[in-house]
């Protein structure tokens, strides 16, 4: 069997040092659409080093830029065809505000392997800490088609009941034609997001936007509109990737505000509101 669940979960964690600086943070922010308008004081918090605030989703690229999807596929007990792999979801817990530059230790392991029948789901967990203690915990859910059916734990469904009533806020964010080309400079070099021929082989009409780019665009919209621009209020951020985004499209971001959380749904305007992010929750102070 290409996936040995017991071996994967029992494998020794991989630990390494990571480092980042303000340039890495600024590049990431530009990659998710910050800086428009360029002289807007609210945007300068993301683009000007003298007043830099770090959006928590920067944690998905900090240090190496290699997403959990890639590192998870190289763990012991995991031998799968990359063409069968999808990034199913992302969960981020922030233990304290991210510094604009730093050095930390990242520890990665397969936290769980779930048997969904016709597919397997791997949970690649990365825990990051510096000299002052834990910084963040990142879980990437890796969906592998055709690798289930061994009778293992199905795991949680991850599906939430739809929010009730009309959204409290609806904002739209344009995705630039070159958004994926800019975002990939933060470390995710998958040609699916840049090479038209590779995209066609993978079954797409043209290169698609990174799911984690949409993830970042969405969190920035929530912080800027529902949280008063205060990045330090974010405590956790979870989503399920429900569909693709093509560069040049427009994202419609709906928000339902709750006591300590914002429920979010994201769709592609030009494709009749096709779902993009679902089961999305930003917990905050």
Keywords:
285 residues; alpha+beta; ten-stranded antiparallel beta sheet; 34% strand
Walk me through the structure.
The chain has 285 residues and is an alpha+beta fold. It contains seven helices and ten strands. Strands 1-3-4-5-2-7-10-9-8-6 form a ten-stranded antiparallel β-sheet. Strand 8 and strand 9 form a beta hairpin. The mean pLDDT is 93.
Give a brief outline of the structure:
The chain is α+β, with helices and mostly antiparallel strands and 285 residues long. The protein contains seven helices and ten strands.
State the total count of DSSP E strands.
10
Number of helices: 7
Mean pLDDT across residues: 93
Task: State the strand order across the main sheet.
Answer: 1-3-4-5-2-7-10-9-8-6
SSE series: HEHHHEEEEEHHHEEEE
Spans with pLDDT under 50 lasting ≥5 residues? none
Distance between the termini: 45 Å
Structural class: alpha+beta
Helix content: 10-25%
- Beta-sheet strand percentage? 25-35%
How would you summarize the topology of this molecule?
Blueprint: H1 5-10, E1 14-20, H2 22-31, H3 41-47, H4 68-72, E2 85-94, E3 102-115, E4 119-130, E5 133-145, E6 169-174, H5 179-183, H6 196-201, H7 211-226, E7 234-241, E8 250-257, E9 261-268, E10 274-284
